[in-house]
Design goal:
- It is built from eight helices and eleven strands.
- With 311 residues, it is of the alpha/beta class.
- It has two domains: 188 residues, 3-Layer(aba) Sandwich (Aminopeptidase); 104 residues, Rossmann fold.
- β2 and β3 form a beta hairpin.
- The longest helix is centred in the middle third of the chain and has 15 residues.
- The chain is globular and about 65 Å long.
Length: 311
């Protein structure tokens, strides 16, 4: 399992996270290649790539890294800052893409390509649960919101990807304790200490796609926290755009059909052989919107499960 850790020198939280990961040891001296500084780990197939530009604009960097180094990149974990208007201290992660933005095919407002998503790394659930456990053990839950986010922003990549973030102010971006939690969660899941990796997809299991709710997906997060479910894309309501239905009985117009379909297809691509199902934040939808979603999901042969059915 080849993992690329992507960092940017233009992002102070990214450098803070990178320093914490490298501080765990086992890394080669960085080598300057044409696309950035590359370090390799001695215990497993993991490499670090440090680029100068902001990573949300680094379209295709996964395939470029493969071409330059010969490494087969199976997943990308991006080390990043998190920004929010509330400036809430947070440790968070999310899949990427901008499925709800239009017109499709144009550059996204924060990177990526409008209407497209990137497959989520199968480690989504394992990384969230590891981060949460370690942060609680160190009492960082008293300072930080331990959360996850809906799919958003760029870059556009081919390989399964997650963003790993510290939020939401310059003071927090430089917090060594916060960075250490994420570094240890990454080490635990990737097996940097030489132990067995966690969160490797082996071709079987139940995979949740979350639909609806706000950006921080509290209902979906609760299910993920209380189960061992695998996690695919999570779409907030803003990415599932409905137009008002007509009286002709046809399904409503809007971006919702496209957004849900690409999220499902992308999740299936990341979890070959998986039993992909949908979990809805039901209260965030009107009745006719739920019925439209049920109709589409039935068409896609994706069952809908309630929280108490997910283990």
């Amino acid at each position: 399992m080849g993992t690329l850790l992507l960092a940017s020198s233009d992002d102070v939280a990214s450098i803070s996270l990178l320093s914490a990961v490298k501080g765990l040891g086992g890394w080669s001296d960085p080598e300057q290649l044409k696309h950035g500084l590359v370090s390799k780990h001695s215990n497993c197939d993991v490499q670090i790539l440090l680029i100068g530009d902001l990573h949300i604009r680094a379209d295709g960097i996964d395939l470029e890294h493969e071409s330059v180094t010969g490494m087969k990149v199976d997943e990308v974990l991006v080390l990043s800052r998190h920004v929010s208007a509330s400036e809430t201290p947070s440790l968070t992660l999310h899949a990427i893409g901008v499925p709800g933005e239009i017109p499709h095919g144009e550059p996204g407002q924060a990177g990526g390509v409008k209407g497209q998503v990137v497959p989520p790394s199968p480690r989504f659930g394992a990384l969230f649960r590891a981060m949460h456990r370690i942060a609680v053990e160190r009492l960082l839950d008293e300072e930080y919101d331990l959360t996850l986010e809906a799919t958003h922003h760029g870059p556009l990549l081919s390989r399964p990807t997650l963003y790993i973030e510290i939020g939401s102010t310059p003071e927090r971006w430089l917090d060594e304790n916060a960075a250490a939690v994420w570094a240890d969660a990454i080490s635990f899941c990737l097996g940097l200490s030489g132990k067995e990796q966690v969160g490797l997809w082996e071709g079987r299991g139940d995979v949740m796609v979350g639909l609806g709710g706000g950006h921080y997906a509290p209902r979906h997060r609760a299910v993920i926290s209380q189960s061992e479910v695998w996690v695919g894309h999570i779409l907030a309501n803003y990415a599932i755009g409905f137009e008002q239905p007509t009286d002709d009985g046809e399904l409503p117009m809007g971006t919702w059909r496209h957004s849900v379909t690409v999220a499902i297809d992308s999740t299936k691509l990341a979890f070959p052989g998986g039993n992909v199902f949908a979990h809805l934040d039901r209260k965030s939808f009107k009745g006719w919107q739920r019925q439209a979603l049920f109709s589409l999901l039935s068409e896609l042969e994706v069952p809908v499960l309630r929280g108490n059915q997910i283990h």
